[in-house]
Amino acid sequence: MKLLITGSDGFIGTELKNFLKKNGHRVTGTVFFKKPEKDEIHIDITDREDINKLPDSRFDAVIHTIGEVDQAASYRKMYKINIDGTRIITEAAKKNGWPHLIHISSVAVYGFKTMGENRTEDLTKRSGNPFAISYMRTKAKAEKIVEVSGLDYTILRLPAIVGPNDNSLSPVVIPALVDGSFFLCGKKDKKSLLILTFSRFGAHYPDKKLHDRVPHSHPHSRKERVREVVESYLDSLDTHARNVFT
């Protein structure tokens, strides 16, 4: 297939581009944060004039991965990238006759209903909370733009993703796991945390009260279990990323 990936310099876009090319697809990517490589074009997704740089080519599908995920970003910035950017790429797809749009969205569109539960789109509506964080609101609005675009579309609502070359979650998650400060919830002496990992040691309970309430124990210490998880994760990173975390 002939594919266009927006944001091929991002975490997800990079992985998609490499995977699809290895599997024989012809891929063109758009980049913003780096110098374009072969089969890449530098484009500002919020600039309609910039979209004209895209090749006059009939793509079989467009995979739209661009999104502002930085929670410190202003609502205005998120609106421009997540909402206006989505609108601009759908307009370009219609204008150029690209038949299918694959939109990378997020489980954040459900709002805080996603916390700790398995949600399905037929049972859970998008959050309409006007006080939700900017990322939730803008991703939900972006989905609506895709749905009324007139294009054939697929919307993929991804959870948070951690992996090699992730520069968003890993710098927060790994140090917190190591020093034991990982996102406790609750108040005062009622704080608790349950972390489920891919560790061969299974689940672990950094909070003593939670550990006492749950009839489950390990022959290995928490320090051993966290170290095994972190070392396994670091093994999957490239040398530069490993040096950053260690």
List the main descriptive attributes of the protein structure presented here.
alpha/beta, 6 strands, 246 residues, six-stranded parallel β-sheet, Rossmann fold, single chain, 7 helices, 2 domains, 13% strand
Write up this protein.
It is a single chain. With about 250 residues, the protein is α/β, with parallel strands linked by helices. It folds into two domains: about 1-160, NAD(P)-binding Rossmann-like Domain (Rossmann fold, 3-Layer(aba) Sandwich), CATH 3.40.50.720; about 170-245, no CATH class. The protein contains seven helices and six strands; from the N terminus they run E-H-E-E-E-H-E-H-E-H-H-H-H. The chain has helices spanning about 10-20, 75-95, 135-145, 170-180, 210-215, 220-235, 240-245; strands at about 1-5, 25-30, 40, 60-65, 100-105, 150-160. A six-stranded parallel β-sheet has the order 3-2-1-4-5-6, sandwiched between helices. Strand 5, helix 3 and strand 6 form a beta-alpha-beta unit.
Summarize the structure.
The chain contains seven helices and six strands; from the N terminus they run E-H-E-E-E-H-E-H-E-H-H-H-H.
The overall average pLDDT, rounded, is 78
Number of strands: 6
In total, the number of domains comes to 2
CATH superfamily of the largest domain: NAD(P)-binding Rossmann-like Domain
Shape: globular
CATH architecture of the largest domain: 3-Layer(aba) Sandwich
Order of helices and strands: EHEEEHEHEHHHH
Question: What is the fold-level CATH name, i.e. the topology of the largest domain?
Answer: Rossmann fold
